[in-house]
Amino acid sequence: MAGSAPPGAAEREVRAIHQRWAEETAAKDLDGLMAHVAEDVVSYEHAGPLGYRGIEEVREICRNGLAASPGPVAWDIPDLTVRVGGDLAVAWGLEHIRSTGADGSTAETWSRGTRVFERRDGGWAMVHQHLSFPLPS
């Protein structure tokens, strides 16, 4: 596509967004977390209704998640896969979250995450995400 970055550069850009999200999660920087989320995002979260529409609903979910862990929070996707085609990118992987509660207790969870990005105004915006926990076997 004319004007699009080469796939290697685009993949690096999407990976960099994920890296910034990890850093912003640790810093509990809600505005930073929202910087690459599209106004018209649709998100299927771990809990709650079947879906959330729009950046304000997703912002509230993120706000609640950060508030639920008053201590340090770490988030990463060690096996992140990114595929880019033109102005769309898809990223997925197993997400590892470690958090510390007010009483010092720690929690560690793994879940699955898939995100779709669209190139808008020269940058990448997340237009969809789907998060889920594996069912116990």
Indicate the percent of residues in helices.
Answer: 25-40%
Count all strands and give the number.
Answer: 7
Total count of domains: 1
Q: Return the CATH topology.
A: Nuclear Transport Factor 2, Chain: A
Strand-residue proportion: 35-45%
Q: What does the main sheet amount to?
A: 7 strands, mixed
- How would you classify the helix and strand content by structural class? alpha+beta
The 3D shape can be described as: globular
Radius of gyration: 15 Å
**Low-pLDDT regions:** none
Q: Could you name the CATH class?
A: Alpha Beta
What is the level-2 CATH architecture name? Roll
Q: Give the H and E element order.
A: HHEEHEEEEE
> On the 0-100 scale, what is the average pLDDT?
92
Describe this structure in words.
The chain is of the alpha+beta class and 137 residues long. The chain has one domain (7-132): Roll (Nuclear Transport Factor 2, Chain: A), CATH 3.10.450.50. It is built from three helices and seven strands. It has helices spanning 7-27, 30-34, 55-67, and strands at 37-44, 52-53, 73-76, 81-85, 88-100, 106-120, 123-132. Strands 1, 2, 3, 4, 5, 6 and 7 form a seven-stranded mixed beta sheet that branches. Strand 4 (81-85) and strand 5 (88-100) form a beta hairpin. The longest helix has 21 residues, at 7-27. The mean pLDDT is 92.
